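Is this the right way to post structure tokens for a design question? Let me know if I should format differently. Anyway, here goes:
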């Protein structure tokens, strides 16, 4: 199966643990030497009625992706574990590399 990044951005991410809709893919993390996809990034909810910036993003490891459909990506994650404050994103990627 081959997918372009632009095709992934058009797909909504749904957590199969609780059925919550997390949003749409905004970015991906790729390990450059081998080209391996490490994680997908989904923007978190906006603060204060959607008027101000985000407090965190969801950084979902590629191993948590269970199914990619025509318009939905199904993931199985605990939201507290993948919730990444924007300033700590690099630290979270280092944790994914160790697993």
């Amino acid at each position: 199966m081959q997918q372009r990044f632009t095709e992934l951005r058009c797909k909504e991410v749904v957590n199969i643990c609780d059925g919550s809709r997390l949003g749409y893919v905004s970015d991906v993390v790729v390990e450059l030497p081998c080209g391996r996809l490490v994680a997908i990034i989904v923007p978190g909810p906006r603060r204060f009625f959607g008027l101000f910036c985000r407090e965190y993003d969801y950084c979902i490891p590629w191993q948590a992706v269970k199914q990619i459909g025509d318009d939905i990506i199904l993931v199985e994650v605990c939201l507290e574990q993948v919730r990444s404050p924007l300033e700590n994103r690099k630290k979270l990627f280092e944790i994914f590399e160790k697993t």
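Format looks fine. Someone answered above. Worth noting: The mean pLDDT is 80. The two ends are 24 Å apart (CA to CA).
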